[in-house]
Structure formats: C-alpha cells, structure tokens
Amino acid sequence: MEKRHPQDSISTSTKVVLPNDTNTIGKLFGGSLLAWIDEIAAVAAHRHSGSLVVTAAINNVSFTKPVDLGAIVTLSAKVSRAFGSSMEVIIDVFIEDLVTGEKTSSNQAILTFVAVDRNGATYKVPEITPETDEEKERYVAALRRRQLSLVIAGRMKPDEATELKALFGM
User: Among 43, 134, 158, 165, which residue carries the largest CB count within 10 Å?
Assistant: First the structure.
C-alpha cells in the first residue's frame, strides 16, 4: 500500500451562517459547527483511505471565537496521521471578513475516523508522510494524543505511553 501525504486529503467547505444555524443572540450554534466539522472531516478521511469511514471520536474542539449570523465560514480538513485502520483529522475553521475578505482563525477540531468496508469491518489505510513543518508537528503530536486517549480508555498502560513519557521527561 503506497504512502500518502496530508495534502492528498485536503477537503474544504464554505458555509454562510443562516438564522437557523444561530442561537438567540445571533451566534453560530456549537452543534451546527460540529455537524459541519464532522462532515468535512469525513471527506478528508475518505480521500486518504479510499474507503467508507465512520467517526470514532471527537477528540477536541475549541470554540475560540464566536461566529456571527451572516458570517462566511471556511472549514479546512486534512488527515494528520494514520494508525492501522484509524486516522486523525484536524479541521481548521476560519471566518471571512465580509468587507476585506481576510480570513481569521475561529475554531479548531480534531476527530478520529475508522475506515470500514460495506459490512462494517475495519479496513487498513495507507500510512502518511508529512511534508511541511506544520504537517510534521501535527504528525508527531497525533501519536501523543492517541496514546493519551488509549491510556484514558484503559487500552494502554501509562508506562507503555512512550511519547507521553518523553513529553514529560519521565
């Protein structure tokens, strides 16, 4: 199976925040944003794996900046690392200034997807080779995040989490 690059999985979506996407103070509902994030992340995971994918975990979502009614929102997703049948996908969310067109970061999310066949059995995905400095940083950090998730879930013993131990100088 040939290795792929994070760039191969890039998926982008642009949305306009409409009244049905907002709360009573005119800000984007977190749940609406999560639905958009899950959808574009699934496309990135599919592009990397070439198979059906299912959401396994929403690892992290940061709601850094509120998004106003009428805002133009761009979501950009790409696979940061692959682990057997699973993939970590990082989604960056930007708000576009309606006058200048300048895009500013508003949110970020990290989700895990698993590749499956039509019967729901897991499917091995290609390894990933990061190229840019940011891709390399995200690739390395993905292993730490995975080990932390496995430790919390009780599927890995803390002393086996070599990347976490190295991070804390243990």
Answer: 43
32's enclosing H/E stretch is: helix 30-49
pTM: predicted TM-score of the whole model, two decimal places: 0.92
112 in Cβ contact with 59 (< 8 Å): yes
Q: What's the rounded Cα separation, in Å, for the pair 33 and 21? A: 8
Half-sphere exposure of 144 (CA within 13 A, CB side): 11
Euclidean distance between CA atoms 90 and 13, whole angstroms: 14
Cα–Cα distance, 140 to 44 (Å, whole number): 19
- Structure-derived torsion over alpha carbons of residues 157, 159, 164, 165, reported in degrees to the nearest 10: 170
Beta strand pairing status for 11-16 and 103-116?
A: unpaired
- Dist. CA 24–CA 22, nearest whole Å: 7
> pLDDT tens-digit profile of 8-48?
999 999 999 999 999 999 999 999 999 999 999 999 999 99
**Straight-line distance from the first to the last Cα atom of the chain, in angstroms, rounded to the nearest whole number:** 36
